[in-house]
Inverse folding.
């Protein structure tokens, strides 16, 4: 959300106050989602380049749809098979199947979009209520947790199956508000969420950094809520996270500046009272990158694959990028 507010102000000035972002449609039912995909290299200036840090590039796509509700993807999870599940910050589920050849991402198909229903089975009634920013989902059980900004809360779902459109008609079984999040910035709240093997949830505050660069992290588990702190790379903010094991998180961090544009950094973070993480890859121009907000991890034997997706803010100046990488072993 940070990039949206800054960029909106800059562009409003440059364009004489013109409104540049389309008004997204609010959904009330499940709809099929036609998707078009155009392949992009990791580096348009050096198409042969396939590695950045500990990532090996396995294809990327710019996604577009004739459905005006498509866009704003802010959280991503994977599985089973080649199905991806996302949420948008206009209050929708988005799902599709990746098309892969020789392990490379070459297309998408079978798209579906549906509103995130509240505990009464109603879709969001406003952008404030719809601002979903992060997703955790267990493909084995269908249990899902969606974290929202502005009205800081978590909505819990059961039986979510991205291959079964009817499952998106399930209302939230719980709507939870933690007192510790009440003071978080309206547009800088629970932007990243990860589930640990014991079921605990780790939720990252996007903004609110102190003088040392730390912002709040909550670990919510059977024993209650534990507060800690995370400092992303300088100039970055956390936008998604995934638990690789009981002690280690892979965290996606996003940077935006009117001077140097957008960038993304992946860090490995060891859980503790104060966490800084080790940066393992950075996407910045001239590499292909946009407002990266979603992260999904797929394991295949000893190999680990990472998918990243961007939030286009429903702007003609941004793109929905879906990128696939292999996470390489540490040197």
């Amino acid at each position: 959300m940070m990039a949206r507010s800054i960029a909106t102000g800059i562009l409003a000035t440059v364009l004489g106050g013109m409104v540049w972002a389309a008004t997204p449609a609010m959904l009330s039912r499940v709809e099929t989602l036609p998707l078009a995909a155009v392949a992009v290299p990791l580096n348009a200036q050096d198409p042969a380049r396939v590695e950045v840090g500990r990532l090996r590039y396995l294809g990327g796509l710019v996604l577009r749809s004739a459905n005006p509700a498509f866009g704003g993807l802010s959280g991503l999870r994977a599985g089973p098979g080649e199905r991806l599940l996302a949420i948008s910050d206009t209050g929708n589920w988005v799902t599709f199947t990746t098309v892969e050849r020789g392990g490379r991402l070459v297309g998408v198909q079978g798209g579906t979009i549906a509103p995130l229903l509240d505990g009464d089975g109603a879709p969001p009634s406003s952008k404030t209520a719809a601002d979903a920013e992060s997703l955790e989902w267990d493909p084995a059980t269908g249990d899902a947790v969606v974290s929202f900004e502005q009205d800081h809360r978590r909505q819990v779902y059961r039986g979510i199956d991205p291959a079964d459109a009817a499952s998106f008609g399930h209302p939230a079984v719980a709507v939870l508000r933690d007192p510790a999040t009440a003071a978080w910035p309206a547009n800088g709240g629970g932007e990243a969420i990860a589930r640990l093997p014991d079921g605990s949830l780790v939720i990252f505050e996007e903004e609110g950094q102190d003088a040392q660069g730390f912002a709040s992290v909550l670990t919510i588990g059977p024993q209650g809520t534990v507060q800690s702190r995370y400092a992303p790379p300088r100039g970055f903010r956390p936008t998604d996270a995934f638990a690789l094991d009981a002690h280690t998180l892979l965290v996606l961090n996003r940077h935006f500046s009117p001077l140097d544009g957008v960038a993304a950094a992946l860090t490995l973070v060891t859980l503790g009272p104060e966490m800084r993480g080790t940066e393992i890859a950075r996407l910045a121009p001239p590499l292909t990158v946009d407002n990266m907000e979603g992260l999904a991890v797929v394991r295949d034997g000893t190999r680990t694959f990472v998918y990243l997706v961007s939030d286009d803010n429903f702007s003609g100046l941004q793109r929905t990028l879906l990128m696939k990488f292999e996470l390489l072993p540490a040197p």
Remarks:
- Residues 2-22 have pLDDT under 50 and may be disordered.
- Residues 2-14 form the longest helix (13 residues).
- The two ends are 35 Å apart (CA to CA).
